[in-house]
Amino acid sequence: MSAILPTSAEENYLKAIFKIAEKEPGPVLTNALAAEMGTSAASATDMLKRLSDKQLVAYEKYRGVTLSEAGSRLATSLIRKHRLWEVFLVDKLGFAWDEVHEFAEQLEHIQGENLTERLDDFLGHPRFDPHGDPIPDAKGRWQHRTQTRLLTLSPGQRGIVTGVDDHSPTFLQYLAEMGLSLGAELEVLERTAYDQSAKVRIGEREAVLSEKVGQNLFVRII
Amino acid sequence: MSAILPTSAEENYLKAIFKIAEKEPGPVLTNALAAEMGTSAASATDMLKRLSDKQLVAYEKYRGVTLSEAGSRLATSLIRKHRLWEVFLVDKLGFAWDEVHEFAEQLEHIQGENLTERLDDFLGHPRFDPHGDPIPDAKGRWQHRTQTRLLTLSPGQRGIVTGVDDHSPTFLQYLAEMGLSLGAELEVLERTAYDQSAKVRIGEREAVLSEKVGQNLFVRII
DNA sequence: AAATATTTTTAGCCTTGACTAAAAATAAAA
DNA sequence: TTTTATTTTTAGTCAAGGCTAAAAATATTT
């Protein structure tokens, strides 16, 4: 009766499939998965057979792969654990938001009864992680916010920073230097038509943000 | 220059060697190591070759093995991490002392800059884990207490519970039911010569503790 | 010291999760 | 529709970490 526990490698593939399917609905292709995992197509094919044997995915040769109900639940649970641990690392241990990904990548694979729920209790049931990404609840239900990319704001509009679409340490560090942490308020003062860069007010300061930043920063318009 | 990180399996062997060498000074024999790891002597031999290649142990065929300086530092660091995570699980997440071993066994292998020191700060630099075992400091220095087995107390002597020598969940649960948590005060009222069992007062209660319990419970005499 | 028993190592095999190179299937272009 | 390009799978290899069975070394008895 007891299902065998997936290995960490299997879990990472499930997360990758989930992540790709989130952006690009429909079956996930082997090459896309291999790219996401930073591995070869041959390795991905091998793993897809294993995941298929364990009923975690529906896999058809040459046709791509989709998560099964069980696989989807597992992926969601991993994302939940990853994000809860990130909250722990930032809120309790005092790490910066650009330092926690690698730790959480390991911590999400810790197995055992009740750990996640106790951690969630301890953290006060946070609904978003330090990057503003939603944390699914214990039943796998997702929160969803209405947020827009900074790029879409016109001069005069104001917003609150709610998240990022690029999680790289360099981007996160840059934002921190600019005072653009989660919850920061900003106002678009001007936008340059030529390159879509924007002059913005961040609290007291003024700064110019490139299109790339505008593309990767989520805000809630106020 | 950068030394390759040991795998979790290698780390577990180092811990096991450390643990055996602690009780039984001198080189650790292959069979003892295999028994401690719950594996075959052949597997232990394989691993000893790997550890020896990585200079983590000094291994001589048929003669047994001892930890190198590097191996010893690593084992100590693992014990430090294990015990700090146990403190976290009990003090912060509210687990009972018999529930945390398996979690800590996984958490001790989490790798990354500064995690242990931040965790130690967050926990307030505890010097003992939830079972009363000492937590080495960041430099690998050990605390040592003066503690005796309950078995050595004579009627009339009183003590404070400082630790256990048996970490099995069943023993720990039994102690908890008896009110014998860390720091509990007790007094030996009588001792039966025949089987070394003792009638003790634990706070308000009275109970009879077997020789086995007396053997596995550490106290500080007051 | 020789015979026997025990411990340890070697040899050969298995699985997981990688890899490369070659083959096969599918898709796109002529 | 046939050729060419792309994607995917298969085949064969490797390292880590386990296993069993057999061989070798060490220890213990007689």
Describe the structure.
2 copies of one chain form a homodimer. The longest helix of chain A is centred in the middle third of the chain and has 24 residues, at 69-92. In chain A, 41% of the residues lie in helices and 18% in strands. In chain A, the strands form 2 sheets. In chain A, strands 3-8-4-5-6-7 form a 6-stranded antiparallel beta sheet. In chain A, strands 1-2 form a two-stranded antiparallel ribbon. The first copy, chain A, contains 8 helices and 8 strands. The first copy, chain A, has 222 residues and is of the alpha+beta class. The radius of gyration of chain A is 20 Å and the shape is globular. Chain A has helices spanning 8-23, 30-37, 41-53, 69-92, 101-107, 115-123, 169-177, 211-216, and strands spanning 57-60, 64-67, 148-149, 158-164, 185-191, 198-202, 205-209, 217-221. The first copy, chain A, folds into 3 domains: 8-67, Arc Repressor Mutant, subunit A (Orthogonal Bundle), CATH 1.10.10.10; 83-136, Winged helix-like DNA-binding domain superfamily/Winged helix DNA-binding domain (Arc Repressor Mutant, subunit A); 148-221, SH3 type barrels. The interface between A and B is medium-sized, with 17 and 17 residues. The first copy, chain A, binds a DNA duplex (30 and 30 nucleotides) through residues 7, 9, 29-31, 39-47, 50, 61-62.
